[in-house]
Amino acid sequence: MKSIRRCQHIITIFLLIFIAGMAALVIKINREAPFYMMNSDHHELGMVYDRNGEVLFDGQGTGQYPDNYFLDVGNLIGDDKGQMENTLVARNIKKLNNYSFSEGLLETGGQAAIYTTLDHYANRAVYDAYAGARGCTVAYNYKTGEILVCASVPSVDVTKGYADIANFESGTLISKAMYGTVPGSTQKVSTVITAMESLGRDRLLAKSYNCVGRYLNANGDYIDCHNVLGHGTLNLQQAVENSCNPYFAQLVSDPDLPLENIIQGYRRMGYAVNDDKEEYFNIDGIICEKASTTLVDKNEFRTQWGCIGQGDTLVSPVQLMMWQSAVANGTGKMTMPHLIDRVFSVHGNITQIAKTKYGDKICSEETAQAVRQILLTNGSNNYSVSIAGYNVGVKSGTAQVKEGAEENSLLVGFLDDARHPIAFCILIENMYSTTVTTEQLATVLLNALCS
Amino acid sequence: MIKNPFAYLFSCLFVLAAHGTMLINIFYNGKYDDIKDLIILAAAVLGLDISYYIIMLFFKQYTYTIDFMLLLILNMSVIFQSCFGGVSFSAKHYITCIAALTACRFGHMLTCNHNWIQQQKKYVWIGIGVLMIIILIFTGSRSMWINIGSFSIQPSEFMKPLLVLACATSITEQQKKHKVWKFDIVWENIILFGITAAVCLFQWWCRDLGSIPTFAAIYAAGFFLRICYPKAKFSNKTLIIAGSVVLVAAIVGIKIAPEYVKDRLFVDIWSDKDGNGYQQSQALIAIADGGWFGKGPGKGYLHNVFAHESDIVFSSISEEWGLLYAIMMTLVILLIAASPLINPPRSYYHGTMCTGICAAFTVQMALNIFGSCNMIPFTGVTIPFISMGGSSMVTSGFMAGMLVAAQSPVFRKPKKKKSKKPANSSARRRSAA
Lengths: 451, 433
What we know:
- The complex is a heterodimer.
- Chain A is of the alpha+beta class.
- Chain A has a domain at 178-339 and 354-450: Beta-lactamase.
- Chain A has helices at 2-38, 74-77, 88-91, 120-129, 188-199, 201-206, 236-242, 245-253, 259-269, 301-308, 317-328, 365-382, 438-450; strands at residues 47-49, 55-58, 99-100, 104-105, 113-116, 134-141, 147-153, 209-211, 214-216, 222-224, 232-234, 272-273, 280-283, 286-289, 292-293, 333-336, 340-344, 350-353, 357-361, 392-401, 406-415, 422-429.
- In chain A, strands 2-1-5-17-18 form a five-stranded mixed β-sheet, with no helix packed on it.
- By secondary structure, chain B is mainly α.
- Chain B is globular.
- Chain B starts with a helix and ends with a helix.
- The A-B interface holds A 2-4, 6-8, 10-12, 14-15, 17-19, 21-22, 24-26, 28-29, 32-34, 36-37, 39-40, 42, 99-105 and B 217, 221, 224-225, 228-231, 270, 273, 281, 284-285, 287-292, 295, 323, 327, 330, 334, 337-338, 340-341, 344-345, 347-348, 351-352, 354-355, 358-359, 362-363, 365-366, 369-370, 373, 375.
């Protein structure tokens, strides 16, 4: 009888292993079924709303909307057609799935939805303010991380389809705020932070350099200033306000500022320096490129040019904006941006609520507060008329692109207002092809968000 | 003939009710163009049920549990297979089900007498050898099928019950150990290992790699039962050595596997869902689409995918009938495999046979279901009694018959001794006292 029982034991083991496998299968299918359905040709999607409940994406396609209603958010919110992969809908399609394993696909009555932090009204206002110009504007609450505006021009109204895709302008199907661009002199904020971290606040403020319109570096290369007559002797505040290239070239080549410290400072801010592996961060699934630059020899033109924000240096507008949050908060910590405020399941239950997250510390509190003051002083001295009515800390930039054939205009900054803690980055491509200025866009942006 | 007629009648009604319920479900929720299709299916299913109830009465058995469950699952599979993509009676599958029931009776008759079958074990080995020669000559190195007109036969399927029998019939030889140098050798163990290795190599050669785990499981079950026969306990040392050999063999197998096998082993089905991952991704989508209760018989999409009725049949059933139904179907097969736990085998030979069959059934189900659902590499083996395929059905039926034999065996009748009249009846009375 014992030997028969031994047979039964082995049979039991086989059966138990199989039953355990079946249990794992049932759990796996229950958990992953929405994902499977999103890979099928047949699915029912929910809605995407802005912070005020305005529709940004209609998954069912049943609503009636004015012409070009979704144009300003087309390349950020996207759709499920597969033409744009780096968009909110494409990256979060599973959350919009009106499907449950027990009830199947819900053609009606499904309540899957994403509420975003975006302000459609402000986004539209900024988009329209480009008035034929190209570029992008991104703004967020630097206290909470809520992205309020993210307009990229040109864009596409997803309800009109892609039949005319061959005639779309380059950059139509991407949100330019997520991709690297030459930052121009807005890069000087990074260089100031790095230098101040290395030298200390007082030592850096005490340094002054002479500008005669151009600077001849140790290797015999010239760094030109936009003011051919030169700025004379400048301290840091004056250099920032005048965006003086020779000052920053001399600062980078200063023997008191070792190249290794600059490299470490840049890396702390998130740059991929030289051969570092290029990295990305994501905003609710949307991939955003991280900054990169080349710093080889502090007396070499390319390194100095990179620290001024030209040449090899690339930074995404979102990252430029995030650095502003570290400065505006005065903590040295970046507030991480997010686009999704809350997610509702197919049954209308909240499944995700946004939380404010902070990135690594890019500089000390002392440095952050000092840079904050420099930018605010720049704002009050130079932008109080062009961005009237707002106490902003800003830094402008002009970036040479297409090997100097075109120049882009940038403006990064923050609003010093406890009720409206807004950090922003504005980019206008080929600035001489339009009469629109970054200051005008900043005014439209702040008016829309603070009204 | 039947000890408990009420139990027999109740079982008959239960099976009829189960199939009737499925047919009613098709009537209300199924997709059919003409009600005649459903009537034909109903007549075939219920007719087979009733016919088999009558036929079973002619077979003397201790229990009919497996027969009823076999009938239940076979006609369930007829209903499933007739509904994929729309109700249309699957005559081909119906015929293979009848063949499976017939094979079950043969399996019972051939294996119920352990003395007789053990005397015939050389024919079992010859049978395996003949099948190998057939594979060698007729299937070729890139196929596992022999095509005869419109029929296809998979000879390797028939090796499964033969290997089970080879393991079971050699069990008593375990006692015949021979001292060779410092080792106790059982020649039949070495022969059996050789046979299993040869079978696996043949499977490799004819590209039926999916069956190798089934053969390995049958051999492993038999091996474990042999090494502890008749009284010894499992030896940890032996188990560790055996486990290590299996592990090394698996690693070497994966290393030298053909490219198409490696592609299947390591494919990310979702990034290659139009290529190597097509069947699995569609199978998973179908299960998700079906949910717990299914889209309705005949209303699925998966019938458009290759091997929907065999390799990914679990998903096809889940899509149309629901995951709950598919699990219940699996449960019926499990109950067949688990029947030796309820009605214990009557001898160690029968016990070894049951263990081998349970190993074959569970491993085949696991390879099919978990493979098609991307939990393990996709091998493309069949689910016993469910998947379309004559060779598989007949083999599975035969093995079910072996299970029946284990519970309703025929033992040699004891010879009656002539009673001698005691010489002294008073002395006998004293002795008894």
